[in-house]
Amino acid sequence: MKNAFGLEMPEIKDIVTDKKVNETISSMLFPVLTYLGIPSKKATEIITNCLQVASNYRTLAEYEGQAHDILAEEQVAARIPEKLLARADLMYSQIERYLLPGNVLDYGCGDGRVAELIAKHRKQELTLADVYEHKHVKETGLRFELFEQGASMPFDEAEFDNTLALTVYHHSSTPLDSVKDTCRVTKPNGRLLVIESVYGVDGKELPAAMQEKITRYLSLTPEQQMKANTFFDHFYNRVIHYSKNSDTKVNVPFNFNTPENWEKLFTKCGLKQETIIHLGLDQPTAPEYHTLYILRKI
Fold first, then answer.
1. Which of 12, 13, 146, 172 is the 20 to 30 Å CA partner of 20?
2. DSSP code for 237
3. What is the pTM of this model?
4. What is the pLDDT, as a whole number, of residue 167?
5. Quick one: pLDDT at residue 85?
6. What share of the chain is helix, strand, coil (3-state, %, to 5)?
7. Distance of alpha carbon 20 from alpha carbon 22, whole angstroms
């Protein structure tokens, strides 16, 4: 299977047969589980069992279900919602200083908690949009618009001063179209704030403490970093948040890119990259290497 950028995507079972990637995944998954309150000994056992299932399954659905059952014994999924509050706080702190005055669209808003924080602390007008409606969205009291995967959003051109796309584009089946649509609804000279999962990084832009913390990931080749990203994107969205119903499964086309190629894509869509900020493996429950792009619509 190829992703939207023409890259051949390996199966999960092929990812974990790469010894160095397997060892890196194990080392990265351990702090995820302990962050969720799993005792160290039990976390090690869970990792061993999940990777065993990942290396030997008949169908991907079989792996997702069996690995989820392993996690369910320790109620891993039930521990996530509380931690998502901290995730929203983190993302808000990363983007808040770059917001322009005026209204804000949160594209691919998920539970809407980041938008909730902006509305609370900055008193800006917020609009939420996503391809599904999270159960928390109604509780935000903010305007919400539903649209179909691959379809344009139901907004006018140049409607928003700020558009957020926080770890969204790589979940789109057609990321180029998604970037174009977020650009379309942003006002001229308005801002797009984008956080994306990337690969092909050496971490030199990171603080020394973060570099040391993720040495093992940074030692991987670009191809191996892509494999690790793929494993964790799938593990978080399809294993931890498992669903038997194909209609409610999170879309995971693994449309990752390098920071340089994201900039080229943004430029192609009429956006100027004002700056890029390397965040590293900043999100404890989803350890993918993130970069923050501050973009201005030309």
1. 172
2. I
3. 0.96
4. 97
5. 85
6. 50, 20, 35
7. 5
Residue with tokens 């038997």, as numbered in its chain: 244
Q: Which two tokens stand for residue 167?
A: 């770890």
Contact in structure between 298 and 188 (CB atoms under 8 Å): yes
Contacts of range 243-249, beta carbons closer than 8 Å, 24 or more positions apart: 244/65, 248/132
pLDDT in tens, 163-204: 999 999 999 999 999 999 999 999 999 999 999 999 999 999
Q: Name the one residue in this structure whose structure tokens are 């391809």.
A: 131
Hey, what are 36's tokens? 């969720």
124-130: which pairs have CB atoms within 8 A and are 24 or more residues apart? 124/99, 124/162, 127/103, 127/155, 127/160, 129/105, 129/153, 129/155
Residue 227 corresponds to which tokens in the numbers above? 């494999």
- 157 to 13, 80, 220, 287, 288: CA distances (angstroms): 44, 36, 42, 35, 33
C-alpha distance from residue 99 to each of 91, 171, 228 (Å): 13, 24, 31
Beta strand 271-280 with 290-297: parallel, antiparallel or unpaired? antiparallel
Give the per-residue pLDDT at 77: 86
Q: Residue 141: which of 119, 164, 172, 174 has the closest Cα?
A: 119
Which domains occur in the chain, in start order? 84-200+249-297 (3.40.50.150)
